[in-house]
Amino acid sequence: MKAIAYYASLPIDDPKSLQDIELPEPVAGPRDLLVEVRAISVNPVDTKVRQNVQPEGGAAKVLGWDVAGVVKAVGSDVSLFKVGDRVFYAGSIARAGGNSELHTVDERIVGHMPKSLDFAAAAALPLTAITAWELLFERLQISQEPADKGQSLLIVGAAGGVGSILTQLARQLTGLKVIGSASREQTQAWVRELGAHAVVDHSQPLSAELQRIGAGQVTHVASLTQTDAHLDQLVEALAPQGKLALIDDPKSLDVTKLKRKSLSLHWEFMYTRSLFETADMQEQHVLLNRVAELIDAGTLKTTVGEHFGQINAANLRRAHALLESGKARGKIVLEGF
Predict the structure, then answer these.
(1) Which residues neighbour 109 within 8 Å (Cβ) at sequence distance 6 or greater?
(2) Using N-to-C axis directions, what is the helix angle for 185-194 and 161-173, rounded to 10°?
(3) pLDDT digit string (tens) for 205-237?
(4) Tell me, what's the pLDDT at 303?
(5) Sign of CA dihedral 16, 19, 22, 24
(6) How many whole angstroms from its chain centre is CA 144?
């Protein structure tokens, strides 16, 4: 089967950083689906793994943790899906990625694809939807009801992949006042379109920006990028006993700065359930099915930013380069081999 992989961590402008290769077809385990991959999207985790994880023993390493496709075969213990089902999922970071014609995945972290979307639009959703959902409802423990409880959420990096779906979830399913941050006119317009009540510029001091829009302090912060650079501003922006959630990988974080206000810190990593095969691993199946229902109802919309064409090494290198530039808006998708 066709696949895109790398053999050594190289800069993305090197043609060997991602290569078109051929691999044997995978075989589904007892709880696995064998999926015919129709579309994929690209996430920052792809670039981080490519840059920092050297393949073992000279083997090819396949990336890709967002897939939309069709079930081609099922394992002996599969009960949630059948051959021919259209599915979408983010997969497991402990297994080979989905940048290949065929891919195996545990059924417990797979959802039925939204009926109203094509494969490319569906592929933009799983990783970011799971991350945003778990951050909002499980880490920050925000109630799924529209009642205004005087709570507010500042989303730092609201125009990115996770921010694009988190902004919608917070606006559509909660009573939060949603404030998104973006630093360019184009991305600020995108965040408003997604439903943010207000938009601030995170290239400026955040407390001053919140004062500018009349928001004062916020009760919750979702810091999706450059948490270490923004930490002092985030602590200042948070009301006493507020909650800070993050998804990025700061080199260091002085959490003692949170003590004076009794702020709580929450880390979201959507691969935890699949990595440790937690008892509630199947919650990601339930979650993705719920997201599909919300998409089909028109409550949420896909967050495709750009379609980069066919799934091949050249187009994936372009996608990685755009992500590494920090200028991506929404999700980058690729479709078909």
Answers:
(1) 89, 90, 91, 92, 273, 274, 281, 282, 284, 285, 288
(2) 30
(3) 888 899 999 988 999 999 999 999 999 999 999
(4) 87
(5) positive
(6) 20
Is 144-268 a CATH 3.40.50.720 domain?
yes
β-strand pairing of 102-106 with 32-42: antiparallel
**DSSP letter assigned to residue 252:** -
Between vectors from CA 235 to CA 231 and to CA 240, what angle results, nearest 5°? 160
**d(C-alpha 73, C-alpha 112), whole Å:** 15
HSE-CB at 210 with a 13 A cutoff on CA atoms is 25
User: Of the candidates 83, 68, 100, 101, which has an alpha carbon nearest to the alpha carbon of residue 32?
Assistant: 83
What's the pLDDT at 161? 86
What's the topology of domain 2-127+273-335? Answer: Quinone Oxidoreductase; Chain A, domain 1 (3.90.180)
pLDDT above 80: residue 321:
yes
- For the chain, give every residue range classified as CATH 3.90.180.10: 2-127+273-335
